[in-house]
Amino acid sequence: MPYQVPEPKIFTCTQSTKLSEKIAEHFGSNLGNVIFSRYSDGEFQPSFEESIRGMRVFIIGSTNPGPENLMEMLLMLDAAKRASARHITAVMPYFGWARQDRKDKPRVPIAAKLVAKMLEAAGATRIITMDLHADQIQGFFEKPVDHLFASTLFLPYLDSLNLSDLTIASPDMGGSKRAYAYSKALGCDVVICYKQRAQANVISHMELIGDVEGKNVVLVDDMVDTAGTLTKAADLMMARGAVSVRAITTHALLSGDAYEKIEKSKLSELIVTDSIPLKRESEKIRVISCAELFADVMHRVHHNTSISSKFLM
């Protein structure tokens, strides 16, 4: 009899449970049984409560700070490796610590490279992630990396809005490549914000390169943290004559007073994915799920079929 490839098993880290349930549903499977034992001092231990010997295992978990989320992923990878899983794929909708992808001053770490090495050492044989902060992070791995783009989710939504005089904007110089990719897909103009930081998460000055008068502007970025950049850019563009400003950001970190800034800003809406669970709801925040995208790619990886159609940018 021909060898039958066993169906993979899907497990989740605790903070990505809701997204993982959606992914498993789209995949046509159920989440595997894993429990976390916790000690009183905060130490925890994951345990797979079913056999995974010789199987393909998908472990889903975003690694946004605090460090516990990354530690969960590492321990689950190590447990899967020691349980003799054949293929161990770390599915990381949000790859945390990615802003530290280079030495921008002396005596600092390259945390993104360190995290990549830790994931491989723990047992990951493949990485599936979405909208890395910097494309070169793929090169930090010796294992295959499937780098998906949330543009496959956002572009259909933008088309559905039927916005006239549409202009794509980048909130900083580093995001210009992403903005140009969106503008090419949508056939519209691009403007760029130039900002200077006094320190991390603090903008001292911002200027606009390009004309937004009479335009419906869409800011695009990979993440929103304190929302200082996006809200300042939106206010600046409205002051320069824009008709409306909305923002698309893949990963909604939304720390500090980000929700208050967004609700008080000139942004008409903020569109994000559910790669990171929202801390609370807001009338200005719209969530587009990435579950079907990840489920489709996981299915293609398991059956060794092409995923190039998921790379629109």
UniProtKB/TrEMBL annotation:
<dbReference type="GO" id="GO:0004749">
    <property type="term" value="F:ribose phosphate diphosphokinase activity"/>
</dbReference>
<dbReference type="InterPro" id="IPR029057">
    <property type="entry name" value="PRTase-like"/>
</dbReference>
<keyword id="KW-0067">ATP-binding</keyword>
<keyword id="KW-0545">Nucleotide biosynthesis</keyword>
<feature type="domain" description="Ribose-phosphate pyrophosphokinase N-terminal">
    <location>
        <begin position="9"/>
        <end position="123"/>
    </location>
</feature>
<dbReference type="GO" id="GO:0002189">
    <property type="term" value="C:ribose phosphate diphosphokinase complex"/>
</dbReference>
<keyword id="KW-0808">Transferase</keyword>
<protein>
    <recommendedName>
        <fullName>ribose-phosphate diphosphokinase</fullName>
        <ecNumber>2.7.6.1</ecNumber>
    </recommendedName>
</protein>
<dbReference type="GO" id="GO:0005524">
    <property type="term" value="F:ATP binding"/>
</dbReference>
<dbReference type="Pfam" id="PF13793">
    <property type="entry name" value="Pribosyltran_N"/>
</dbReference>
<dbReference type="Pfam" id="PF14572">
    <property type="entry name" value="Pribosyl_synth"/>
</dbReference>
<dbReference type="GO" id="GO:0009156">
    <property type="term" value="P:ribonucleoside monophosphate biosynthetic process"/>
</dbReference>
<dbReference type="InterPro" id="IPR000836">
    <property type="entry name" value="PRTase_dom"/>
</dbReference>
<dbReference type="GO" id="GO:0016301">
    <property type="term" value="F:kinase activity"/>
</dbReference>
<keyword id="KW-0479">Metal-binding</keyword>
<dbReference type="GO" id="GO:0000287">
    <property type="term" value="F:magnesium ion binding"/>
</dbReference>
<dbReference type="InterPro" id="IPR029099">
    <property type="entry name" value="Pribosyltran_N"/>
</dbReference>
<dbReference type="InterPro" id="IPR000842">
    <property type="entry name" value="PRib_PP_synth_CS"/>
</dbReference>
<keyword id="KW-0460">Magnesium</keyword>
<dbReference type="GO" id="GO:0006015">
    <property type="term" value="P:5-phosphoribose 1-diphosphate biosynthetic process"/>
</dbReference>
<dbReference type="GO" id="GO:0006164">
    <property type="term" value="P:purine nucleotide biosynthetic process"/>
</dbReference>
<keyword id="KW-0547">Nucleotide-binding</keyword>
<keyword id="KW-0963">Cytoplasm</keyword>
<dbReference type="InterPro" id="IPR005946">
    <property type="entry name" value="Rib-P_diPkinase"/>
</dbReference>
<keyword id="KW-0418">Kinase</keyword>
<dbReference type="GO" id="GO:0005737">
    <property type="term" value="C:cytoplasm"/>
</dbReference>
